[in-house]
Design goal:
Length: 378
């Protein structure tokens, strides 16, 4: 059987033509750390971490010796070896994003070695197409933000999206006006979600909730600090809008804390940060015991997106019923050359869904020329 022979990191970056912001800071470039794990027969798998790329790269270099020489089919054992080494220093946080990147590359590699798509390895396909929603509607420095948001939202509907998510977090009055404008623009039949990226205190989040309840909001994401479990729970008790969160949470123990607090209706682990596909499966099982939905956070290249597709293709949705609820994957539509040019295929929604790759592994590859072109030189 092949052994793991090489682990390489690639930090890639691209400056954006038009910076955009959300409640916390402004983006003027996109930067990610990818990892390629190669077996001694030359077969390789790609992975990606979500978070500060330079730190993720260091973390991968720290964890790599634990995986080198290992059996690429024994992902669980390799995962545990890395996790044991991380636990003393980083029960939560970015070292788990490094671990996630390696874990994802191992799943891709295992799929290629066994000539099997990852969704089959994860338990088998339950759906060949995954429902997606457009993430966009960020802030910018232009005047007439509200008009631009309304126009942008209509554009997503024109591209076939049946659900869109917008940013809030500029203040209650401005947020409420923006949400109303977007709802009017897209009409009553497109789902609309809002995300404050933990911009508010509980009383502010409550006030915003009351203002936007008439606009049929499918969820309010990260309303308060990810550390304010009690605030989440209280908001959830008082709000008619479902509460979502978890993109800043790590590992099954982090989600255990979130679920034990009855904090969310919808959990949003980032598979490229929470512990990879291995841990995401455990988080999904735990969520099931708390009757919480799983809607992964996804913000990266085509690798991260494909990971979400395979995961949701195989995930179990409860409760069962004739017209089952379909899980949702986040599809970032902001300017991102790394997503659009670095990886193939370029995913496109059709009737609000994206087909799950049916090739061995994740079914995604990295363009070698672009990888060189986008590389951050040491
Ligand atoms: Mg979010």
């Amino acid at each position: 059987m092949p052994r793991i022979a090489r682990i390489e990191t690639f930090v890639v970056t691209q400056r954006l033509q038009k910076p955009f912001s959300y409640s916390q800071w402004e983006y003027d470039r996109r930067t990610v750390c990818l990892v390629r794990v190669t077996a001694d027969d030359g077969t390789y798998g790609w992975g990606e971490g979500y978070g500060p790329a330079a730190v993720i790269k260091s973390g991968i270099e720290f964890l790599a010796p634990l995986v080198m020489g290992g059996d690429p089919l024994a992902i669980g054992a390799l995962w545990q070896a890395m996790h044991v080494r991380a636990t003393d220093f980083a029960r939560r946080g970015v070292l788990l994003a490094s671990l996630s990147a390696i874990d994802i590359a191992l799943w891709d590699l295992k799929g290629k070695l066994l000539r099997t798509p990852v969704h089959v390895l994860l338990g088998g396909q339950r759906r060949a197409r995954v429902q997606v929603y457009a993430t966009g509607l960020y802030f910018d420095r232009e005047p007439n933000l509200r008009e631009r948001l309304a126009r942008e939202a209509v554009g997503y509907v024109g591209q076939g999206f049946r659900a869109v998510k917008m940013k809030v977090g500029l203040g209650i009055e401005e947020d409420a006006g923006n949400v109303e404008a977007v709802r009017r623009a897209i009409g009553p039949h497109v789902r609309l979600m809002v995300d404050s990226n933990h911009a508010y205190l509980l009383h502010e989040a409550l006030a915003l909730t009351q203002r936007i309840e008439p606009f049929d909001i499918s969820w309010f994401e990260e309303p308060v600090s990810p550390d304010d479990y009690a605030g989440y729970a209280e908001l959830r008790r008082q709000s008619k809008i479902p509460i979502a969160g978890g993109e800043c949470e790590y590992g099954v123990h982090g989600f255990h804390q979130l679920f034990s607090a009855a904090a969310v209706d919808i959990a949003q682990p980032d598979i490229c940060a929470c512990g990879g596909l291995t841990e995401a499966q455990r988080i999904a099982a735990l969520a099931r015991t708390h009757f919480v939905e799983i809607t992964p956070h996804c913000w990266g290249t085509g690798i991260a997106f494909a990971v979400g597709l395979h995961f949701l293709s195989s995930v179990d949705v409860q409760p069962g019923r004739l017209r089952a609820r379909e899980p949702f994957l986040e599809m970032d539509r902001t300017e991102n050359p790394l997503r659009d040019l670095l990886t193939t295929p370029r995913f496109q929604p059709v009737d609000g869904c994206v087909a799950v790759p049916d090739l061995p592994g994740l079914g995604v590859d990295v363009d070698a020329k672009r990888l060189e072109e986008f590389a951050v030189l040491p």
